[in-house]
Amino acid sequence: MSGYFITGTDTGVGKTVVTLAVMELLKRRGFEVAGMKPVASGCSPGPEGLRNSDAVQIMQACSSGLPYSQVNPYAFEAAIAPHIAAARSGESIRITKIVSICRDLEDSADRVVVEGVGGWAVPLGSETMLPDLACRLKLPVILVVGLRLGCINHALLTASAIKSTGLEFCGWIANQQQPRIEAMDEIINTLRECIDVPLLGTLPWREEPNPGEMAEYLDEFP
Fold first, then answer.
1. 3 Cβ contact list (under 8 Å, min separation 6)
2. Looking at the domain assignment, is residue 49 inside a domain?
3. Is the pTM above the cut of 0.85?
4. Is 97 considered catalytic here?
5. DSSP 78-133
6. pLDDT tens digits for 122-153?
7. Domain span at 152
8. pLDDT digit string (tens) for 28-72?
9. Choosing from 15, 27, 37, 97, which is the catalytic residue?
């Protein structure tokens, strides 16, 4: 095992929070860790080009200094679906490029943590989907479930879709997205009964999540 692929039940469910927490936990265990956010929309222009704030955090969390282009090879300014953003930019998201960069990182780090984009069933192009990338990377998958109304449906559908690929589905992480969630314990218990992989941890709501603190809640991480 050389790392993990972090996906989510939807966009905005806390994949970056989990990615940073997992990276922090692995570093505490003595591993050299690299991180990737291969595709990012909603990037801001600057003197060094387009930059995504989540990808910058992941870059800064790596054990060794990595150029931004390795952490986030596909950066788009428009905050829209990646395949649409790529088409508008006249680019194509090439899975082979992402896989090649990831393999280079695997040669220089003990663990590589790759954050997906959006949810699971996300197009990357006219003929490619996010699961195609995950299958090529062959990393164990961790599902981030954003705890909110409707999350049971999203979580069960996503879990089923992940399992259908034959990839190793090593667990899921619950992320509390609001200060108070009605019936949160019951929601988590329902998901534990219906998803037959371990709950690796439940992250509490924080207005500004700290990776060091969030890592403390991954108490069942393998």
1. 106, 111, 112, 113, 114, 139, 140
2. no
3. yes
4. no
5. S-S-HHHHHHHTT----HHHHHHHHHHHHHH-SEEEEE-SSSSS-BSSSS-BHHHH
6. 999 999 999 999 999 999 999 999 999 899 99
7. 3-37+98-215
8. 999 999 999 999 999 999 999 999 999 999 999 999 999 999 999
9. 37
